[in-house]
Amino acid sequence: MDFGLIFSLQVPPGSGIPWQEPYQDMLTCLPRAEELGYTSSFQVSHHAQKDGLCPGPLVACAGAAAVTNTMRIGTGVLLVPLYAPLKLAEDVVVLDNLSNGRFIFGVAPGYVASEFEAHGIPREERIGRFEEALDLMTLAWTEETFSFNGKYFNVPETSLTPRPVQNPHPPIWYGVSAPGSLRRAARRNAIQIMSPRHGPEELIEHFAPYEAEAKRIGWEIPERPVMRSVFIAETKQKAEAIAAPALNYLFTELYGAASAAGDRVLKSADGSVITAKDQVGFDTFKNRYIIGDPDFAIEQLSLYEKAVNPSEVSCWMHLPGIKGSDAMSSVELFAKEVMPHF
């Protein structure tokens, strides 16, 4: 099992943290994390958020690529329907060259209504635009010259250079959970990356249609990454004291608020749907994040290993509002005490 890191670069309102601080924390962390054995860095993205949750993931990925040598660098995930696909294809291939073939293109159709409103994209078109954009980009990366005629996008005969370093193009990872989207991910030979908002039982449920479709088409899935919010300290009490406010904020203001607005369902452990963000708190979803001491982390990761056998766990330690020095302490302790067990 490999381990990576996740960054969202958020500044919760009222925290007093300067906007640039999370960015500098990431750039400081990554060279040391690479030395410690972390194998990837992923950039979370949303748009039109009050806390600065990174709206420019490709730019952030370029920064991450510049301060590392071996880590895979990726978006986790980029909301494709909000972008012009040919321009996006160009930026991705530049990142693949900049990183010397280390870029992973994590993608999703998005779900937050206000993001689509802000960018003037009809939310009801998000799935169609998402899949068509990926078709266009794949064609641009793999053909010397190409044209494209679709429902949403049209490109006259043209070419894209430079060419990707990776053959045939950077790997595409899908951050989706709907059964139809999971089956389409398999048909595109895309890796499914499991969101930290879902509990272990949901991960098992989401893998099922993806694996079934892969088996039907004869494709062997090469990786099984999952994303988890992780924070460890010398004692569980200390870890919870530092990380509980961050998780409470994340599940209330992003996941809970989206569920309350009807944008995307968030289910509690008993399967009931969250309909108001004040139904959510740190204790509500404790089985969805790993917050504790090293022994607790080893125990929890062993359960994930048995349940879904992940090839990689991407750890979200630089959670919103957590100081960079505290996050680095978790990064160091996790590498020393937890990673050797896996």
Radius of gyration: 19 Å
Mean pLDDT: 94
SS element count, helices: 10
How far apart the termini lie comes to: 6 Å
Q: Class by helix and strand content?
A: alpha/beta
Q: What order do the helices and strands follow?
A: EHEHEEHEHHEEEHEHEHEHEH
Fourth CATH level, the homologous superfamily: Luciferase-like domain
Helical content class: 40-55%
List the quaternary state of the chains: single chain
The number of domains = 1
Based on the structure given, which CATH architecture is correct? Alpha-Beta Barrel
What is the 3D shape? globular
Q: Describe the largest sheet.
A: 10 strands, parallel
* Total strand segments: 12
CATH class: Alpha Beta
DSSP strand content: 15-25%
Verbal overview:
This protein is globular. Helix 1 links the parallel strand 1 (2-7) and strand 2 (40-43). The chain has one domain: Luciferase-like domain (TIM Barrel, Alpha-Beta Barrel). By secondary structure, the chain is an alpha/beta fold. The mean pLDDT is 94. Strands 1, 2, 3, 4, 5, 8, 9, 10, 11 and 12 form a 10-stranded parallel β-sheet that branches. A two-stranded antiparallel ribbon has the order 6-7. It has helices at 21-36, 57-66, 85-98, 113-119, 126-142, 179-187, 200-217, 236-260, 294-308, 324-337, and strands spanning 2-7, 40-43, 72-75, 78-79, 103-108, 146-149, 154-158, 172-174, 191-192, 225-232, 289-292, 312-318. The chain has 10 helices and 12 strands. 44% of the residues are buried.
